[in-house]
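Task: sequence in, structure out. Protein: Vacuolar protein sorting-associated protein 41 homolog.
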Amino acid sequence: ASLHDHNKFLALGTHYGKVYLLDVQGNITQKFDVVTFVCLFNLFSGSDDMLAPSSLQIIAVHPHFVRSSCKQFVTGGKKLLLFERSWMSRWKSSVLHEGEGNIRSVKWRGHLIAWANNMVKVHLHLSKACSAPEGCLCWKDNVTLIIGWGTSVKICSVKERHASEMRDLPSRYSVDIISMSQFETEFYISGLAPLCDQLVVLSYVKEVSEKTEREYCARPRLDIIQPLSETCEEISSDALTVRGFQENECRDYHLEYSEGESLFYIVSPRDVVVAKERDQDDHIDWLLEKKKYEISNIKRIKAFFVINLSCWSTRIKCQKILGKNAALWEYEVYKFKEIGQLKAISPYLPRGDPVLKPLIYEMILHEFLESDYEGFATLIREWPGDLYNNSVIVQAVRDHLKKDSQNRTLLKTLAELYTYDKNYGNALEIYLTLRHKDVFQLIHKHNLFSSIKDKIVLLMDFDSEKAVDMLLDNEDKISIKKVVEELEDRPELQHVYLHKLFKRDHHKGQRYHEKQISLYAEFDRPNLLPFLRDSIHCPLEKVKLSLLISRMGNSRSALKMIMEELHDVDKAIEFAKEQDDAELWEDLILYSIDKPPFITGLLNNIGTHVDPILLIHRIKEGMEIPNLRDSLVKILQDYNLQILLREGCKKILVNHIGTACLLFFLPCPLPLDAAKPFSMVVFHCRHMFHKECLPVPSMTSPAQFCNICSAKHRGPGSAILEMKK
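Result:
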């Protein structure tokens, strides 16, 4: 393929016989079909009124053609043909050259045409030709032709002949190689172009693999060289990435250029790469990249900043360019919005002197909120809250949380917004929900102790150690009593708090020492004895009672500890009474049976709960028991008392319900044995009968009636109440 640059468009010819017109951005605007392969060189000479694109269909039917003006053009192939428009607008052709193979390159400059086949030819004034070695061509100026051939570069010039040598030849005919100007390069030359007094060289590169030691095609290079008398100096070198470079050959690359704009086009079978000379804009980019902000031409830079939107990623770093001009800053932000790069400018916006309108900052925050939660959170942390309307951003975040209620980044950011808005209660609740490490810092910084009185359990669940330290350090703001009350349903946390309080001061929480005994017994047994030893505010009997709490293990273990460690039979009996468990009484008797003092205590106290005979039968003969006589007397007295109580109760009961059976007027005494069951029938009219005295209900008359009331035709006696004992 080949390409030609025009000041308004590019013309690209392909191996498939098509010509494309492209705009300067590389977009195809028109396409033309031609008969065979087309290669375009210098199709247009620069005037705006050149050949209309539609006429390309006429002139592009040849394998190779060149255009110099709207009235003349040449084509290449096996013949170099000159076409000229006659006065009747017809095209007349003449052969300039033939017979030396296909013509592969043609360059037209002024009155001179140079072409390359197996040799390089120069046609002077559209007349005859002279020859030079084969290669690629470019005109440096109207009299200087540069030829690249293989790895060599030759510079030729057209010299005017002396008048004696002119004869019938044109004045500029001779082509000479400038003396000592030929030099060699390291690579094959695929294209040449002038750049002031330097040369742009498109090099075809082959390298040798270190692993296989075989030669392979590398990426082509675009070099800028400075020609010297017998050699050259490399000014710069860039390797170009084009598709399929591994399979390309030297002839597959072409270099075309536009003199007016210093644009260079590297043409490969699959890509066209555009290169241009570095200018002031590039210099500014370099200065910005190196953070060299002391630039004298500030007007030029401002224009660059505003116009060159394609360099947004670099130019925004120079904040000094816009200075303190808020209006210019805001104008720039809207420019960035137009190209969809609001996020790119955000790190460089001024945050004071000048301060932009709140809408500017809100616009950027909304941009991040829609696509980058982390970036949004970063801006909220970095930007002062007075740059934007806080309530607007809070509402926007809450709207997003409706879609993603568990998003930790949004929740944390919302807490920060609440904090700035002094809405500490909501902020604290979010921090606690997130279990965020900053929650304690927030409480201290903003003195939020009044807000956490009902959140003590949450704080303790989050970090009990930090929470206890904070609460104890601020007893004047949250009392010990309040903390203990809040932790009433969480005894394990209550113990952590009271334990640390006791460690700090043995006396401050003295009112809770009795409570702490059971807490230590349940949650921290190793520290129970040290606590009992150090505390002077626990009654001894309470200490002993605490040790028999069944939650330490089970009731039998607790009873054993009381007997073995406290040796207190009274407490053991009290504990057994509270538990009301026959197995505990059995354990107590077995433990006490070889301990006379314990036997005495049992004899004096168990009479009303356990049959004393169970204990007495187990006492060994000959065992001396202190106060045995008094204990036995007490047992007998207790037994007599029980008998008297039973008889008294029996008399009261008989007197209360004892009366005659109204049917046969027989007495209705209670049986002597209170345990023996008996039945009475009482009607609602309060008449009472033995159940046996009443007729047995039949199938025809299942209901029973009071005989007395029925005889008197009264209704209340129709209901029956049966009493059983």
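The chain has 27 helices and 32 strands.
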